[in-house]
Amino acid sequence: xxxxxxxxxxxxxxxxxxxxxxxxxxxxxxxxxxxxxxxxxxxxxxxxxxxxxxxxxxxxxxxxxxxxxxxxxxxxxxxxxxxxxxxxxxxxxxxxxxxxxxxxxxxxxxxxxxxxxxxxxxxxxxxxxxxxx
Length: 133
Fold this sequence. Notes:
five-stranded antiparallel sheet, 133 residues
């Protein structure tokens, strides 16, 4: 018989869905950019996420994107409220790194949309200041 231990926590999952194509330039954000953002977050806040590439198909086109998975990982157990706050923070960081106006987070009970209006997103404001200089 082995000495394996089993640790259980209440199940909780969320998925962050975000595109990779920058609206203004058409640039495709490299997966390594997002890996770095996620790695930095997980190093600062002991946590674990998954990262998968995906594709979006919509009326008039499509684009590549990412699906970022979060679970209530037994090594770092959290309450649903703490996990939701982490998901929102991670989504916000990735949204900035990917220069996306929108980002969806699917929680167990609701789907949230993080949204910037065109022209007021932090990277667009920064770009317009550079152009004015």
